[in-house]
Amino acid sequence: MRAKKRRNRRKRVNGYAHRVPMAAFIVMAMVLLIGTLWVKASCDAIGSEIQRLERHSQELSERLLTEEMKWNRLRSVDQIRRSLASNGIRMDWPGRDQVVTLSDVRAGQMAGADGVLTGDDRYAGVGRMGGYE
After folding, report:
1. Please, are residues 110 and 123 in contact by the beta-carbon 8 Å criterion?
2. What is the phi/psi pair of residue 47, to 5°?
3. Which residues of the chain have pLDDT under 50?
4. Residue 121 contacts residue 115 (beta carbons within 8 Å)
5. What is residue 119's predicted lDDT score, i.e. its pLDDT?
6. Is the torsion defined by CA of 84, 89, 95, 101 positive or negative?
7. What is the DSSP-derived secondary structure letter of residue 15?
8. What does pLDDT average to over the chain?
9. Do 115 and 96 meet the contact criterion of CB atoms below 8 Å apart?
10. pLDDT in tens, 112-124
C-alpha cells in the first residue's frame, strides 16, 4: 500500500497550473491592444497630414486661377492697346510682305552639300503669306 500512496503524492500538483497560460493570454491581449492603438494613431496622423495638404493644394489652385485671370486680362487686345498708347508706341497690323510662315520641307530637298542627313536634323521652309493687310 505504501507504494500506491507514494505514486499519488508524485502526481499531486501543488499550486495552480492555469496561471501561466492565463498570464500569457493577458500579455498577448495587451500587446495586440497597444499595437492597434499605435496603428490607429498613425492613421489619424497621416489623415490629418493629407487633409492639410489637400487644403494647401486647394489654396494653390485658387491662386493659380486668380493669376491666370489676371494674365488673361493683361493679354487682352484692349489692354495691350491701352499699354501701347500710354507708352506712346504706335503699332499697326503687319503688311502682306512682312508675314513669314515656316512649313516643314522634306529632308531630301534640304540636304547639305555632302547629301548626308542624320535622323536628328529638321528643316523648315520659309514662305510668304498674304491676307494681313
Report:
1. yes
2. -65, -45
3. 107-108, 132-133
4. no
5. 55
6. negative
7. S
8. 78
9. no
10. 555 555 555 555 5
Q: Nine-digit cell at 61?
A: 489652385
What's the chain's length in residues?
133
Asked if residue 92 lies in contact with residue 118, where contact means CB atoms within 8 angstroms, the answer is no
C-alpha cell at 115: 547629301
**Contact (CB, 8 A) for 85 and 75:** no
Q: Which of 89, 101, 88, 87 is nearest to 130 (CA)?
A: 101
The owner of cell 496622423 is 45
CB 131 within 8 A of CB 101: no
Question: Could you give the C-alpha distances from 83 to 26, 69, 110, in angstroms and in order?
Answer: 80, 18, 43
- The answer to whether residues 95 and 125 touch, using CB atoms and an 8 Å cutoff, is no
